[in-house]
């Protein structure tokens, strides 16, 4: 039985993972969260679990809890419309601190949850993707036994990416940026959790890197049309907005308006790059049980 240290426990994937942990699979389980009270209300800790409140920026808040664990599952990350400085501080420097302290504490295995965005070719102004690329490089050079996991779009109740797509799809005129023909492969958050739990249970990670996506690949325009059907009850024609001119404008505006903007130039990278997962033998055993897109959309958008 391995012992597990989880960062970002209150996030979308973190909550799904805690709810899915098999009884007795890990002991102890220590979870780092920025809001211990909220996490406790949402998911009461089981026997052998410990929630500690802290932030990757504040090493003193969590470093004392690392000794005695074997596996780090690093979920914590700045996402969304955070600034370039924030992405660097959390996703790069936070990962650097966690790796250094993990080595000092004698931890054996380190799992980084990265993003399919780290494989995007067109990353113009996408500071999140760049920070994930840097974090991956730090893990590779750490000397630890590691796995780097790159999920595709993660859907589930409260999924930020799905909420953003639902706003586009649910507008009076549904919007698609660019041609709408880039391929996407959404995955249910519970399926991501299942893959991560199985990975954490392995005795050796063997410097493994893999991507994980759901059972269906489709053009992003088709995905938005399916979302529109659920949130508006119809799939009328969508309006295409030229992508690259918009990204150029947003890049300029971000210097002035920052997070006030409804979307950043970087976030539009999902409309400029295929977001699909390459097959990998570690993931294959889970494929047959993964939730199909229509089911995850109905479950995630219920009440929208």
What do these coordinates show?
The chain is of the alpha/beta class. It has a domain at 2-154 and 188-213 and 277-289: Rossmann fold (3-Layer(aba) Sandwich), CATH 3.40.50.720. The chain has ten helices and 13 strands. Strand 1 (2-7), helix 1 and strand 2 form a beta-alpha-beta unit. Helix 3 runs parallel beside helix 4 (127-140). The longest helix is centred in the first third of the chain and has 22 residues, at 84-105. It is globular, with a radius of gyration of 19 Å.
N/C terminus separation: 41 Å
CATH fold description of one domain: Rossmann fold
Major β-sheet annotation: 7 strands, parallel
Low-confidence region ranges: none
Q: Strand sequence of the main sheet, in spatial order?
A: 3-2-1-4-5-6-11
Layout of SSEs?
Layout: E1 2-7, H1 12-20, E2 26-33, H2 36-42, E3 49-53, E4 71-74, H3 84-105, E5 109-113, H4 127-140, E6 145-151, E7 154-155, H5 160-170, E8 175-177, E9 183-184, E10 187-188, H6 189-200, E11 208-212, E12 218-219, H7 220-232, E13 239-241, H8 243-257, H9 284-287, H10 293-300
Parallel strand pairs: 1-2, 1-4, 2-3, 4-5, 5-6, 6-11, 7-10, 8-13
Antiparallel strand pairs: 9-12
What are its keywords?
single chain, 304 residues, alpha/beta, Rossmann fold, seven-stranded parallel β-sheet, two-stranded parallel ribbon, 10 helices, 18% strand, globular
